[in-house]
Amino acid sequence: MNAFTFTTSKSIICESGAASRLGEICAEQGFRSALLITDPGIEKLQLHQTSVQSLESAHISTTLYCDVVADPPESVVLTALDIAKSANVDVIIGFGGGSSMDVAKLIALLAHPTSEQTLADIYGVGNAKGKRLPLIQIPTTAGTGSEVTQVAIVTTGETTKMGAVTPLFLPDIAILDAELTTGLPPHVTAATGVDAMVHAIEAYTSKLRKNPMSDLVAKEGLRLMAGSIRTAVHEGSNKKAREDMLLGAMLAGQAFANAPVAAVHALAYPLGGHFHIPHGLSNSLVLPHVMRFNANEAASLYAELTPIILQDNNLCGTDDDITKQLIDGIEALIKELKLPTTLKEMNVPKDFLPTLANDAMLQQRLLINNPREVTYESALAIYRSAYE
Ligand SMILES: NC(=O)c1ccc[n+]([C@@H]2O[C@H](COP(=O)([O-])OP(=O)(O)OC[C@H]3O[C@@H](n4cnc5c(N)ncnc54)[C@H](O)[C@@H]3O)[C@@H](O)[C@H]2O)c1
Ligand SMILES: [Fe+2]
């Protein structure tokens, strides 16, 4: 067996309603002053209300920062950092989707009293040093798996993002409370859900660090999500479907945190950067085309995932036949979820495809994990097939 390391968050509480016990959970840890980081959408819905009430009931002084924007820019991180420092908080709580959780990771690190690093110092892999404040993550989308990943992503320019990667970003506690996700709109549920499924698929075919534990969590995550994504999108209040999606996305997060994602994400990022297409949708637009490109090299692995994703144990044929059925099935699923399926629909100009291909080639950190080597020409061919 190849040697491997599997790292994840210290404690995971998976319990409907657990967010309203946040005060109790913090009091058990001896925290006295919390900063809860979220976004204006969640503030408007008052999704964080029962958590804040429980903090107050537990006599934990609570500061709110509700101004995270999607794909957070550096300015958001710096403002939240000032607030954390001046309130002298002893625990950081990320409450929301990947955007709020990523900001919370950075604040937990940079607001630690002994921290001497700036945001610019910690971009890249393993550059963060020292200690962080205690960190609790409460996801409200079933997508990024940020509650179990070592990554925080910040928008640094018009079309560019930077990532910081460190085990310090794994929280002390992740709270998975599916009740928080029942109001997630259908199009966000669909896009973030497909993103999470891509995390599991790409982890399972990841070339360098795929391992028995990442395989296990990828398959279980896919089983839960493939069985429930349609219901979660079309019948948002269905509690079981929401529980399956939230747990499934976390398991997929554990998978790709240890067996990194590859060409689907590498080709999706430039679409988000240039056209502000949401991350999950960018992935969904290129997914079937990248899988077709990978099929020769990855057919045996795709064939192992097919009965799980298609929820069908009576498939027959060669690995190539089964892989074809999988890709057709995924295309059908994307249509059922009512997600756009072509770059043309997203108003991406056809003559922009070479720029996208160039940008995708910059994502070598991800491309090295792809089961088949991606060249500029092949990236361009994939974008062309995704165009119309
Ligand atoms: N750290 C990681 O491992 C990792 C991985 C992938 C992506 N990301 C980052 O995560 C971010 C994207 O995160 P996301 O897709 O979770 O979305 P998001 O956090 O940007 O939120 C998207 C929108 O959904 C709304 N929303 C969230 N939960 C809701 C709920 N329960 N009900 C109603 N509305 C709700 C928010 O108000 C917001 O308007 C990007 O910045 C991306 O770069 C991080
Ligand atoms: Fe993703």
Descriptive report:
The chain is of the alpha/beta class. It has two domains: 170 residues, Rossmann fold (3-Layer(aba) Sandwich); 201 residues, Dehydroquinate synthase-like - alpha domain (Dehydroquinate synthase-like, alpha domain), CATH 1.20.1090. The protein has a six-stranded parallel β-sheet with strand order 1-9-6-4-2-3, with helices on both faces. Strands 5-8-7 form a three-stranded mixed β-sheet. The model has no long low-confidence stretch (mean pLDDT 96). Fe (ii) ion (FE2) binds next to helix 7 and helix 11. Nicotinamide-adenine-dinucleotide binds next to helix 2, helix 5, strand 7, helix 7 and helix 11.
Tell me briefly what this model is.
This protein is α/β, with parallel strands linked by helices. It has 15 helices and nine strands. The chain has helices spanning 22-28, 40-45, 49-57, 74-87, 98-110, 119-122, 186-204, 212-234, 239-258, 263-275, 279-310, 319-336, 353-361, 364-367, 376-387, and strands spanning 11-14, 33-37, 61-65, 91-96, 124-125, 135-139, 151-155, 161-165, 173-176.
State the CATH topology of the largest domain: Dehydroquinate synthase-like, alpha domain
The proportion of strand residues reads: 5-15%
CATH superfamily of the largest domain: Dehydroquinate synthase-like - alpha domain
Low-confidence stretches: none
Structural class label? alpha/beta
**How many extended strands?**
9
Radius of gyration from CA coordinates? 20 Å
Largest sheet: 6 strands, parallel
